[in-house]
Amino acid sequence: MKQQIQSCQFDGRNYGIDIMKILSAFMVVFYHFGHRKYEFFEACNYVPNINYILQTLVAFSIPLFFMVNGALLLNKTYDNLLILKKIGKLLLIIVVWKVVCFPSWFLKTLVILYVLYPLLKKIFDNFPKILVMVILCFIIFPDLYNMIISILRFCSVESINIFGGGYKVESFPRTGFFTLYAIPLFLIGGICVKKKWKIKSWQSIILIAIGLIECLFEAVVITRTTGELFDSGNGNFPTIGAFLMAVGFFLLLYQVKIKESWKLPILFLGKNVLSVYLFHSILIHVINRFILPGIDTLPLFLNLIISILIYLSSLGIGVIFSRIPYLKELVKI
Question: Single GO cellular component annotation (predicted)?
């Protein structure tokens, strides 16, 4: 009997969205585990190795997370009371998990997006020209701004003239603009679904490759000009490259076709992905302190295997929490 393969949209659920959730969370785990060797010797001559390239690839993860949230929220109508409840639940999760030093900055950004949701939804539904302007403004600053600063440093430009005044390039810091670079990603995630944007798989891959190259360019320029190895994962979130990679992965995975036998596990992993974000840092701390004390680097394949184990263990802990009264409120939004 021929194995049935259905488009991920046919049964009413887009499993590509779940795959994006899973992939984003895994890349965050892989990044935070971080037992990788980058071969950093001389900043002025630094050339990225495979580990550094993979770390740079991680830059799409949180931007994709924001795109997924935009795709899910902007194409439905939620009343303000429900949004307030979600904000309250997010704040509860942030406050409680702050006790165990959970890095909750991206959830704080999600709170901002929920607060802005009524306004963004109004613009999304009724004012297409304003929508385009909002997206462009937040791409120009900080994403394009950060790229221009990197280009000026690459060209060894020491100062620039603005409105008759001279300013040193080094006085212009890179910025995430209070993580508000998430706004255009949130909006474009919604647009991709609403307009049913589609491009061929190879075009998505080219988009991802261009984004990766741009992120590597910025990372290497900063490394060579500062003399310190740049954090090309987290540090590249507010960049044109991360933006392009996130859009490329979104368009690639949104159109993916899923075998019937894969739907249930993908659904399970996608629905419980918050547990991975919440518990992986604790597990990494335990591993570093008790299992791998004093070990800074591991082969790439071990990094991948251990990251998978951390992912699955975090998921398992989350499932246990989800079955305990009161505690279940801490692992679901």
Answer: plasma membrane
**150-169 b/e with 16+ CB inside 10 Å = b?**
bebbeeeeeeeeeeeeeeeb
Q: Given pLDDT bands bounded at 50, 70 and 90, which one contains residue 101? A: low
Helices (H), 127-155: 128-138, 145-154
Domain positions in the chain: 15-257
Q: How many other C-beta atoms can be found within 10 angstroms of the C-beta atom of residue 47?
A: 8
How far apart are the C-alpha atoms of 122 and 274, rounded to whole Å? 28
The answer to whether 192 and 254 are in contact (CB under 8 A) is: yes
Encoded tokens for 283: 């597990």
Query: Which of 26, 59, 21, 46 has its CA nearest to residue 241?
Result: 59
pLDDT tens across 42-63, in order? Answer: 667 888 999 999 999 999 999 9
Does residue 154 register a pLDDT over 60?
A: yes
- Report field, pTM of the whole predicted structure over 0.85: yes
Strand pairing class (257-259; 5-7): antiparallel
Q: Closest Cα partner for 214 from 248, 190, 180, 185?
A: 248
Residue corresponding to tokens 């901002």: 112
Burial of residue 90 (CB within 10 Å: 0-12, 13-18, 19+) is middle
Q: 191 vs 71, 120, 132, 241, 303, CA distance in Å?
A: 7, 12, 11, 19, 36
In degrees rounded to 5, what are phi and psi of residue 8? -65, -10
Give the C-alpha separation, 182 to 179, whole Å: 6
